[in-house]
Input
Amino acid sequence: MGSIGTPPNPENGSASTSPPPASNCDGDERKPQQATIGMPPNAETTPPTETEASKKRKASILPLEVGTRVMCRWRDCKYHPVKVIERRRMHFGGPNDYEYYVHYTEFNRRLDEWVKLEQLDLNSVETVVDEKVEDKVTSLKMTRHQKRKIDETHVEVPLDAYEICRNIGLVLGYWRSDAGHEELDAASLREHEEFTKVKNIATIELGRYEIETWYFSPFPPEYNDSLKLYFCEFCLNFMKRKEQLQRHMKKCDLKHPPGDEIYRSGTLSMFEVDGKKNKVYGQNLCYLAKLFLDHKTLYYDVDLFLFYILCECDDRGCHMVGYFSKEKHSEESYNLACILTLPPYQRKGYGKFLIAFSYELSKKEGKVGTPERPLSDLGLLSYRGYWTRVLLDILKKHKGNISIKELSDMTAIKAEDILTTLQSLELIQYRKGQHVICADPKVLDRHLKAAGRGGLEVDVSKLIWTPYKEQG
Ligand SMILES: [Zn+2]
Output
């Protein structure tokens, strides 16, 4: 079984915060290079054995409060600044033995994790706790009128998160992107954020892979006492125990996603799944996908969506590598709602393939399209790369004048996206009272090189598809 220890970057690189592989540091501990606030002036000469003073200090700051900022030893064996997001008492520990859920302030939220006290450099504790966080937590606890008594120091986060999501309509099937959040009042939204801040499921098994998750996903409460979930890679049903999955695999007769195979080229296949006809599959896919998508990209009602599932096929079946979803009807000309390449398959060009595929569908519909906003950090990078490659390839080959409208007609890329892409590359100039595209071949080559390779090509001749039409 392959094991994915670190969230890798997507095909197109990303966030300069790519983590190194997990390691146990082998005594190769390097202390933070700089002392931070709270460090005594003589820290460097402090002998390895604890002094009375440091013991006293430790006793006064432990357990650390939510909101505390401190340096934490990460998987690269170096110390990085973190903020304590949550804490919980250790199962077999003493009254002051806690684990801490931390956010590395330099990194994306997907790297948030539970850490042990020994990973924290207590000399670096900033003693001023983030007041706002404290207030928020306290006020939430006081206003929620919970029947279940919650231990002040052992908040059952996942369960509460599900309840809160449900109460404010953010549970699967009623989600929408941030745009939809505007309809929620600020307090509800804060509450939702507060209770989805800690990952609930740590790993999943899917086909041949065990995958570390990135974000919270609101699985039904009965699943939230499991750190690991087992997914059937074909119907995406999920289970709490390996034996349940083994029993399921004996009777599950799917060997590919439900729905129609609309593309096959070599070992790659694309299936179109109608969320209305395959509701359970659509919901399972959302639960799974949410583990790797931040709360910005969520779902509405699966009925209203088509899901395009990209698979690598072999003699055992068609194995999902990623997908994108698309609204059946979009007034904003969205041609893609959510996009995900599963971590084991990232950096292989599949993300680019999915984006290119979404535009091929738009071309067949005779419409221009654009991805739903907001895009995730990784999503935006993928799109910028795609737009740059497609547009500059045309400009390079084109002789004579070309307008943005013509570019849009040729590529199905929305005019606004063309304009912002060309502007960001400084290819639009203002001359004699009008905006013109300036395409010096050398400059184009330089930008194309920077945008990287295009990944796997979509072979349009292998796409057999007619645009969605409501039946009946
Ligand atoms: Zn199954």
The chain has twelve helices and 19 strands. The first strand starts at residue 2 and ends at 4. The chain has a mean pLDDT of 78.
